[in-house]
Amino acid sequence: MSTRLITHLRHVALAVPDLRKQLAFFTDTWGLVTEHTDTGLVFLAAAGSPEQYVVRLRQAPGKRIDLISFGAANAADVDTLAEQLARDGVRLVNEPGDLQTPGGGYGFRFFDNEGRTVEISSDVDVRRHRAIEEGEDIPVRLSHVVVNSADPEGTRAFYEKHLSFALSDTLMHPRMGEMMWFMRVNGWHHSLAIARGPHASLHHASFEMRGLDEYMRGTGRLLRAGVEKIWGPGRHLAGNNTFSYFLDPHGNTVEYTTELEILDEDTWHPHVYDFSKPEVSDQWGTANAMNEFVASRSFNDPDEGLFIAPPV
């Protein structure tokens, strides 16, 4: 596919066994706000984002990624993308139609190569949002989602071929080879990244803060609250963004970040960075060292929802 029809990342939907505990974490601790509720469902918004919600939580017996949602410019692009995917043999969950989720819109869902559910939508109502003020240590928007993949080369190829994602940068290790691919659908360095892992699962979901001060204030607030920190604070080389990684109550990794690089797509050439060099993982040298413990905490549990569409 040569024409990019996806415009941006909308939200990530997670299923969890303890909805009440997860909701309390994301609102009372992480800084999102409850925007809509339904039976066994909560839709959480970021105060600075025009998206109706950036995280959806669903009560379920097991833990899984319900779906990752991306935007398209209009209904015609949604239809075109659905037709192209079907023609290429990609398994659609449903045909394009009116959405029944908050903000409405028009969209469809399909399974990617490893069985994750992906949603593409357009014409969703814009949420009334505001500028985050100086010193406010709450998320502005959902920055990016990173997935673990047992077939990362195949997953990268799927998103490039079918959804016109572009490669921004790659992380490699002298002994292990290429390990992570940063993929974009607009000028942001990455909206999706693919990490080599033992199984398909969520690696982490990242939330953009207003600036460095707000990022550090948020990091400190979570530390004072006793939330387990995995890695950070620091600044990556690929994407040039800051990072502080924490574990949510169900063992998912969530990140505070800021200053993710915006690229000139016409002139950008992808780099291959050797992350065995400390300055690649953390330019500042302030984070705890990237090691097997840090990596293993982001492997997460195997996703229980592969090739099983969420009920909602």
UniProtKB/TrEMBL annotation:
Q: Which residues form the VOC domain?
A: 8-123, 141-259
**Entry-linked InterPro entries:** Glyas_Bleomycin-R_OHBP_Dase, Glyas_Fos-R_dOase_dom, GlyoxalaseI/FosfomycinResist, VOC_core
The superkingdom listed in its UniProt entry is Bacteria
Q: Note the PROSITE patterns from the entry.
A: VOC
Q: Which residues span the membrane?
A: none
PANTHER family linked? GLYOXALASE FAMILY PROTEIN, METALLOTHIOL TRANSFERASE FOSB
Q: What is this protein called?
A: VOC family protein
Q: Which organism is it from?
A: Actinomadura keratinilytica
